[in-house]
Amino acid sequence: xxxxxxxxxxxxxxxxxxxxxxxxxxxxxxxxxxxxxxxxxxxxxxxxxxxxxxxxxxxxxxxxxxxxxxxxxxxxxxxxxxxxxxxxxxxxxxxxxxxxxxxxxxxxxxxxxxxxxxxxxxxxxxxxxxxxxxxxxxxxxxxxxxxxxx
Length: 150
What we know:
The strands form 2 sheets. The protein has a 5-stranded antiparallel beta sheet with strand order 2-3-1-9-8, with no helix packed on it. It has a 4-stranded antiparallel beta sheet with strand order 4-5-6-7, with no helix packed on it. It is globular. It has one domain (23-141). It is an alpha+beta fold. The protein has helices at 3-21, 50-56, and strands at 25-35, 46-47, 64-75, 81-85, 89-95, 101-107, 110-117, 124-131, 134-141. The protein contains 2 helices and 9 strands; from the N terminus they run αββαβββββββ. 17% of the residues lie in helices and 45% in strands.
């Protein structure tokens, strides 16, 4: 193999690797309401699935967890994804040079909280108290949520 062909092969390998590293993927963003109240009448809330319930129930005090919003996000790792949510909330998702995802939650114009998710992490959960009667959580995950107690 000639030196020029070898250089071209190395360039193509680097290009293919870089393209694969920035390949867009799908993420799902759920807004969850934790409460002791039954499902509010007239709301299109959905009961969360068993996988998410198993993460939240042992840690938090609420009897019920309802999905109030679900967004499918086409995430390009080369860009910061911004997701507008109800309640004047905005979510930013950024892939860091370390390979981790940093997820930042804003309400109005201020940062509420942020977290980093390991490269092989399956789910990032952020949240805050609304009142002593309920909380909200924002969940970022690569797998499509299942609803109800299936």
